[in-house]
Amino acid sequence: MGFLGILGLPLGYVLQWIYEIVGNYGWSILLFTVIVRLAFFPLQVKQQKSTARMSAYQPMIAEIQKKYAKDREKQNEELMGMQQEYGYNPAAGCLPMFLNLFVIFGIIEVVYRPLQYILHIPADAIAKAAEVMGLASANYTTQSQIVQQVQQNAAMFGDIFSPEQLAMIQDFRVDFFGINLMQNPGFELNNLLIFPLLSIVTMAMLNVVMLRSSGQ
């Protein structure tokens, strides 16, 4: 199991638990995201406070650097003194940021491999199914195409998956407000375009929030 697998394993059980309750992949991802974000909300607040504090100290740091531009030793002494006086630590926001990144990578791993983390189908069986379909076994597109193919023609995979596994894949509900989440958005004008558009909008909003929280 690789690094991403280690990150995804505990989150996979959370997503599986949610799916067993709501019985829908789309709603499971939505609730899963909310639960994870609520769990890490204190860390996010700490990181934002650290960023805001860093922004407040920036003029003082710039003044010291300008005043002692030719005396690096004195500059470092003054910066250390400022840190001790105000309790300022430039690395204070790093730990929450890294933890948040690890969680994001874990979420990506889980969402990319629903067969593995929600239905707990062995990776070697998934790889064999991908090989039969002539697909690479490492990405989300592969697993989504396997789900679609099994739901259309389960007999094709009778020698790869057990009857119980085939039944689980066939019963795997992937519709979300009429959208099949196993299909990939393209350049066609259809309802799948809502996902890349939402991604762009939310990314822009997140950047605005981060800039404002840092005082910029």
Tell me the series of helices and strands, N- to C-terminal: HHHHHHHHHEEH
What is the number of beta strands? 2
**Percent of residues in beta strands?**
under 5%
Please estimate the helix content: over 70%
* Number of helices in the DSSP assignment: 10
Report the radius of gyration as a whole number of Å: 24 Å
> How would a crystallographer describe the biggest sheet?
2 strands, antiparallel
* Structural shape: elongated
Task: Give the topology.
Blueprint: H1 3-22, H2 25-39, H3 41-67, H4 72-86, H5 94-112, H6 114-117, H7 123-133, H8 140-152, H9 163-170, E1 175-176, E2 179-180, H10 194-213
Antiparallel strand pairs: 1-2
Helix pairs in contact: 1-2, 1-5, 3-5
Descriptive overview:
With 216 residues, the protein is mostly helical. It contains ten helices and two strands, in the order αααααααααββα. The protein is elongated.
List keywords for this structure.
mainly alpha, 10 helices
Short account of what is shown:
The protein has helices at 3-22, 25-39, 41-67, 72-86, 94-112, 114-117, 123-133, 140-152, 163-170, 194-213, and strands at 175-176, 179-180.
